[in-house]
Amino acid sequence: MEFADRVILVTGASSGLGRHAARALALAGATVVLLGRHEKRLDGVYDDILAAGGAQPVIMPFDLAEADDPRFNALAATLAHQLGRLDGILHSAAQFIKLSKLEHQRLKHWEAAFATNLMAPFALTRACLPLLEGAEDAAVLFSAEEHGLNPGPYWGGFGLSQAALIALAELFAAEHQDNPNLRFNVLIPGPVSSPMRHRTHPGEVPENLPKPESLLPFYLTWLGPQSRGRSGEVIRPDLGYDPSRQD
Ligand SMILES: NC(=O)c1ccc[n+]([C@@H]2O[C@H](COP(=O)([O-])OP(=O)(O)OC[C@H]3O[C@@H](n4cnc5c(N)ncnc54)[C@H](OP(=O)(O)O)[C@@H]3O)[C@@H](O)[C@H]2O)c1
């Protein structure tokens, strides 16, 4: 129960990796704030966590792409009012743009991707900073893509939003390097079975991919007390995936 008494906000908690991470955090004792756009999907995660014996979570329906500063501030104020503290944020929400040459991408696709993948993690973290700075041991973990490290052809606006997200995390870490109680790191999960992975790589055999469960030790380490004092790192787990395996 190393997360007992901790409050962790998880974006993208309704699906994929965020959903699994939220459940693991709740089983480790955290009060998890489940953020996503669809209340019904969050209800399902809530029920799943309670059925598994996890700490009671809080549901936070919220559209990251539509919010402005006042709405992010209001979200932080709600957390302060209802829970009185915040010990961590896992940014796991993301918006994918389908792979294509730049000439086929449109501004509205870039706007949606940048709003969810870059601007929201910035604005949400910024709004929650006073709460995080008030915690004894706070961790912010951004989720990014391999293509953020090396934006390649066809990944277009999605890859560039991820590159900017990694740079954003490094900026937060650098600007708070004097605070040993607050850290900012980036997790690049690599290939893991999830709804998004099946959209980005439709040719893969899902059963051959690592399962989301294999990432849980990384979420627990980088959001919890074990990573205290480590900030500005990019974590790239090797989950042993062999992309040439097609059986
Ligand atoms: N799976 C992989 O192999 C892999 C590899 C590298 C990096 N990642 C990264 O890991 C993270 C999680 O990926 P995933 O595979 O779990 O993706 P996913 O299954 O598609 O989940 C994405 C989540 O983002 C939420 N979301 C999207 N737009 C939102 C918005 N405007 N406001 C609030 N929530 C929004 C979705 O919730 P609703 O639709 O219910 O709102 C959903 O819960 C992402 O940052 C991704 O880039 C994944």
Describe the protein's architecture and organization.
The structure is a single chain. The chain is an alpha/beta fold and 247 residues long. It has one domain (7-235): NAD(P)-binding Rossmann-like Domain (Rossmann fold), CATH 3.40.50. The protein has helices at residues 16-27, 39-52, 69-82, 107-134, 146-149, 156-175, 195-200, 216-223; strands at 7-11, 31-36, 58-61, 88-91, 138-143, 182-187, 234-235. The protein has a seven-stranded parallel sheet, sandwiched between helices. The radius of gyration is 17 Å and the shape is globular. The N and C termini lie far apart (39 Å). The mean pLDDT is 96.
**What's the CATH class, please?**
Alpha Beta
Low-confidence stretches: none
CATH superfamily: NAD(P)-binding Rossmann-like Domain
> How much of the sequence is in beta strands?
5-15%
Mean pLDDT over all positions: 96
How far apart the termini lie comes to: 39 Å
Q: Using only CA atoms, what is the Rg?
A: 17 Å
Quantity of strands, as a count: 7
Strand order of the largest sheet: 3-2-1-4-5-6-7
Largest sheet: 7 strands, parallel
- Identify the overall geometry: globular
